[in-house]
């Protein structure tokens, strides 16, 4: 039986932590020196949670499977997820672990991140109830290199999801070692939509340019997207390469912008829209997210996204 565009929801399996975001830095921090920030926020963090909140705000049913510590930061994460419309039934408090923390030091051009993994590193396949995927439509996973406990099971989870009829998307994020070992190819073999930023794309494909990288990625997965920050994004699907420029905004903080882009793209993709429309929605969600500190405060709902896109057309 063919599944309708609106049936099923989006499953996100992955890490969960808080973000401590210092914004308005005049420049990057240096060891042995002190700089000041214009503002500071404690916000919900992690690529997985930011994506989950972004997709939920755009009107999608979301199942989020994760782990936090039994501490104040863990409770903060759970409350923030609920406020964004993401159920927390499948977020387990881990015994003997602390909730992860990422310190984000943000200038107007870029940011530096320092992460304490905590519960992120110990989260593993044994804590994932694959039966939760039954009847759902799409699986998204990210932070491949950061999740040491879950990483070996990424291929297994993707294969099982595909057998259950779900489409998949994968945003590995950066490899701290810059090695991009062959094990990731097992995940790519089960990926329908792949998200990378420009640096990640060049490192994974061992190429120097975006155009070369996108062609190689197009041979590895059905749909590949390279996020280019304020310059927009480029994607390839069925051999067709499409690009879309970014939107000019006065960015306050770029934390989570790539995950918000992915949320906008996937939400539009699941509605059967064209590749150009998916890129435009992704660029808009990414741009809007930079207007507020943290990854979720600036995320649009479907109505505000539509209004923003109409205003840009005018």
Describe it:
32% of the residues lie in helices and 23% in strands. The protein has 314 residues and is α/β, with parallel strands linked by helices. The protein has one domain: Ribokinase (UDP-N-acetylmuramoyl-L-alanine:D-glutamate ligase, 3-Layer(aba) Sandwich). The chain has a 9-stranded mixed beta sheet with strand order 5-4-1-8-9-10-11-12-13, with helices on both faces. The longest helix has 15 residues, at 275-289. It is globular. The N and C termini lie far apart (42 Å).
Just give the CATH class.
Alpha Beta
Task: From the 3D structure, determine the CATH topology.
Answer: UDP-N-acetylmuramoyl-L-alanine:D-glutamate ligase
Strand order of the largest sheet: 5-4-1-8-9-10-11-12-13
Q: Report the mean per-residue pLDDT as an integer.
A: 93
Distance between the termini: 42 Å
The CATH architecture is 3-Layer(aba) Sandwich
Structural class: alpha/beta
Radius of gyration: 18 Å
CATH superfamily: Ribokinase
Low-confidence stretches: 1-6
Strand content: 15-25%
Helix content: 25-40%
- SS elements, strand count: 13
Topology pattern, helix = H, strand = E: EEEHEHEEEHEHEHEHHEEEHHH
* Number of contiguous helices: 10
The biggest beta sheet, please? 9 strands, mixed
Count of domains? 1
């Amino acid at each position: 039986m063919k599944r309708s565009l609106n049936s099923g929801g989006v499953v996100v399996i992955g890490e969960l932590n808080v973000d401590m975001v210092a914004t308005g830095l005049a420049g990057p921090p240096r060891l042995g020196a002190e700089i000041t920030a214009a503002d500071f926020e404690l916000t919900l963090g992690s690529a997985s949670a930011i994506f989950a909140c972004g997709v939920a705000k755009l009107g999608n049913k979301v199942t989020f499977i994760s782990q936090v510590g039994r501490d104040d930061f863990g409770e903060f994460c759970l409350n923030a997820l609920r406020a964004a419309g993401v159920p927390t039934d499948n977020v387990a408090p881990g015994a003997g672990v602390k909730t992860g923390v990422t310190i984000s030091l943000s200038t107007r051009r870029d940011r530096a991140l320092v992460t304490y993994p905590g519960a992120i590193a110990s989260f593993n396949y044994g804590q994932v109830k694959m039966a939760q995927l039954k009847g759902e439509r799409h699986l998204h996973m990210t932070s491949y290199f950061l999740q040491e406990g879950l990483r070996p099971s990424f291929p297994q989870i993707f294969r099982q999801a595909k057998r259950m009829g779900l489409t998949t998307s994968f945003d590995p994020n950066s490899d701290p070692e810059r090695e991009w070992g062959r094990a990731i190819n097992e995940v790519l073999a089960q990926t329908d939509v792949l998200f990378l930023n420009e640096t990640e794309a060049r490192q994974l494909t061992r190429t120097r340019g975006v155009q070369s990288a996108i062609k190689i990625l197009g041979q590895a997965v059905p749909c590949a997207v390279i996020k280019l920050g304020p310059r927009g994004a480029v994607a390839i699907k069925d051999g067709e390469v499409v690009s879309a420029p970014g939107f000019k905004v006065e960015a306050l903080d770029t934390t989570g912008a790539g995950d918000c882009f992915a949320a906008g793209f996937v939400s539009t993709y699941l509605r059967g829209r064209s590749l150009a429309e998916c890129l435009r929605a992704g660029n808009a969600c990414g741009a809007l997210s930079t207007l507020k500190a943290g990854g979720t405060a600036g995320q649009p709902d479907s109505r505000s996204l539509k209004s923003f896109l109409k205003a840009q057309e005018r």
